[in-house]
Write a structure and sequence with these properties.
The chain is mostly helical and 53 residues long. It contains one helix and no strands. The chain is rod-shaped. It starts with a helix and ends in a 20-residue tail after the last helix. The mean pLDDT is 89.
Length: 53
């Protein structure tokens, strides 16, 4: 049977691992909600003297 100190250590490790998993899931949700976060963006501006169409 595990002693009291071993149970406390396992509980603390479990809390730590659970906290890390929650933070990781929150990070994934935040990154996933950003549209095109890692794409390069550039803007083009053109001017035409005469456009027939």
């Amino acid at each position: 049977m595990a002693d009291h100190q071993d149970i406390r250590l396992r509980f603390r490790v479990g809390l730590f691992v659970g906290g890390v998993l929650v933070l990781f899931m929150a990070f994934v949700l935040v990154i996933g909600s950003q549209s095109r976060l890692f794409e390069q963006r550039y803007f083009l501006r053109t001017s035409f003297a005469d456009v027939q169409g």
